[in-house]
Amino acid sequence: FQMNLCSLLAVFSLIMIINAKQDDTCEVCTKVLGDAMSKVTDGERNKPDVIGRVIREHCGTARNKDHKLCFYIGALPESATSIMNDVTKPLSWSMPPAKVCDKLKAMDAQICELKYDKPLDWKTIDLKKMRVKELKNILNDWGEVCKGCTEKTEFIKKIEELKSKYVKEEL
Question: Angle between the 48-60 and 84-92 helix axes, to the nearest 10 degrees?
Answer without folding.
Answer: 120
